[in-house]
């Protein structure tokens, strides 16, 4: 399961497959919270939405887009809080968790770590053989994170195990 964390819109996507194969989309969605609601209520709503998605689809792993520095500090803080909720949701169920930077996901999906959102959406639509592009972009980004983990997660785990730290968490 891939998660594009956000406090207002959190993209969630579940894919099935194996490294080297296109994969199949199982589910995609966006969990929304009210920007006018108190922060604690928004975080709880996000947690409830992620928990429901995890229960409904029972993924084997959770991959979350890693928070990156932006100029808008308030936006980074909200995204970081949402990211923490996403990682906690997977860990609570004992699922392996991993994080990927936006450029890692873009490189995996588009072959270019500097690809724009439209390129990611176009490529994830092709890779998963979807009839139409997932909308909004948060949904496409979540699928991209899921596919990135599908394709790269096994290698990361093997490298981490070889280094002696047990794999991505």
TrEMBL record:
Self-association and partners: Homodimer which binds Holliday junction (HJ) DNA. The HJ becomes 2-fold symmetrical on binding to RuvC with unstacked arms; it has a different conformation from HJ DNA in complex with RuvA. In the full resolvosome a probable DNA-RuvA(4)-RuvB(12)-RuvC(2) complex forms which resolves the HJ.
Catalytic activity: Endonucleolytic cleavage at a junction such as a reciprocal single-stranded crossover between two homologous DNA duplexes (Holliday junction)
Name of the protein in question: Crossover junction endodeoxyribonuclease RuvC
Cofactor binding comment, as recorded: Binds 2 Mg(2+) ion per subunit.
Domain of life (superkingdom): Bacteria
Source organism: Glycomyces buryatensis
Xref: InterPro entries: RNaseH-like_sf, RNaseH_sf, X-over_junc_endoDNase_Mg_BS, X-over_junc_endoDNase_RuvC
GO cellular component, one term: cytoplasm
Keyword Secreted: no
Binding site for Mg(2+) 1: 4, 138
Keywords from the UniProt entry: Cytoplasm, DNA damage, DNA recombination, DNA repair, DNA-binding, Endonuclease, Hydrolase, Magnesium, Metal-binding, Nuclease
Function: The RuvA-RuvB-RuvC complex processes Holliday junction (HJ) DNA during genetic recombination and DNA repair. Endonuclease that resolves HJ intermediates. Cleaves cruciform DNA by making single-stranded nicks across the HJ at symmetrical positions within the homologous arms, yielding a 5'-phosphate and a 3'-hydroxyl group; requires a central core of homology in the junction. The consensus cleavage sequence is 5'-(A/T)TT(C/G)-3'. Cleavage occurs on the 3'-side of the TT dinucleotide at the point of strand exchange.
Enzyme Commission no: 3.1.21.10
Residues noted as binding Mg(2+) 2 in the record, renumbered to the chain: 65
Active site: 4, 65, 138
Known cofactor(s): Mg(2+)
Lineage of the organism: Bacteria, Bacillati, Actinomycetota, Actinomycetes, Glycomycetales
EC primary class: hydrolase
GO BP terms: DNA recombination; DNA repair
Localisation: Cytoplasm
GO molecular function: crossover junction DNA endonuclease activity; DNA binding; magnesium ion binding
Family statement drawn from the similarity comment of this UniProt entry: Belongs to the RuvC family.
